[in-house]
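Thread: Newbie trying to understand structure tokens

Hi all, I'm a second-year student working on a class project, and my supervisor (Dr. K.) asked me to get a predicted structure for one chain before our next meeting. I've only ever worked with sequences, so writing a 3D structure as a token string is new to me. If someone could post the tokens and maybe explain what I'm looking at, I'd be very grateful. Here's the chain:
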Amino acid sequence: MLNRLPSVTLCLIVATCLANSVFAQERARPERIAGKPNLNGIWQAANSAHWNLEAHSAAALPEFWALGALAAIPAGQSVVVGDTIPYLPQALAKREENRAGWPASDPEANCYMPGIPRATYMPYPFQIVQGEGDTIMFAYSYANANRPVYMTNHEIAPVDLWMGRSNGSWDGDTLVIEVNSNIDQTWLDRAGNHHSAAMTVTERYSLINEYAMQYEATIDDPQTFSRPWTIRMPLYRRMEPNARILEFNCVEFAEELLYGDLMTKEAEVPADAN
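---
Reply by user tm_fold:
Sure, no problem. This is what the structure looks like when written as tokens:
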């Protein structure tokens, strides 16, 4: 046991040095940019909202029984302020239809860009690039999606877009983004929660400390919901010294689902052809 103490001590010294190096890099980040909080970094949600925004129990997926627990849905608490989404009756029926067709009916399965707010809490990181200019860039791993946030020149897009049109402003130290022109083909999660093209989303990003921020998104869609409603969750800054956004170009994984009936099949050669 005594012979192992030097190696243990060495490991502790190395770990401490690495930790100090990481913290030194983090401290080098300026606290503010042009007088506003510095939101630069790789961020990620740590919850099960991508499965279902509302509270849900753990459940098996009968379609994937061969995968056992690997394909089960984990339990999760609601991130909806007030717990439940205020659907209009016809829109609630549409959600049940969406659920019945899952996963093939989910736009995520087709590698479509996820839209806002879904892109924020998918199980992949995203990056905020903030400078002193009039645009803040958000880049997402999933489907190589991205969106510019225009801090000036606020407009409504002439056509509906997968990631919408993002107009940004500062409310004190909170970044506020109003997202309009949202295409109606995106979902809000894997549970079939949906919206119409009339949806507008107002996001609020507020730093809690150097490594966490509070995220809120208020959804206003009178064609789908009886009133505006809000989701709320923390987001966490990735601390690895080499943290980065890695490409998840999922189109090739969805080709069979998207175009399978159009793809040319190789003819089977009879066994006795030779």
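A couple of things are worth pointing out once you decode it. The longest helix spans residues 5-27. The chain has one domain: 29-56+78-259. Feel free to ask follow-ups in this thread.
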